[in-house]
Amino acid sequence: MASSVLSLASATPSASLSSHEINKGKFNLGSFCFNKEKTNPFIKTKSFGRISMVVASNVSRFDGITMAPPDPILGVSEAFKADNHELKLNLGVGAYRTEELQPYVLNVVKKADKHLLEKGENREYLPIEGLAAFNKMTAELLFGADNPAIKQERVATVQGLSGTGSLRLAAALIERYFPGAKVLISSPTWGNHKNIFNDARVPWSEYRYYDPKTVGLDFEGMIADIKAAPEGSFIILHGCAHNPTGIDPTPEQWGKIADVIQEKNHIPFFDIAYQGFASGSLDADAASVRMFVARGMEVIAAQSYSKNLGLYAERIGAINVVCSSPDAAARVKSQLKRIARPMYSNPPVHGARIVASIVGSTVLFKEWNIEMEMMAGRIKNVRHKLFDCLSSKDKNGKDWTFILKQIGMFSFTGLNKAQCDNMTNKWHVYMTKDGRISLAGLSLAKCDYLADAIIDSYHNVS
Question: Strand 32-35 relative to strand 26-29: parallel, antiparallel, unpaired?
Answer without folding.
Answer: antiparallel
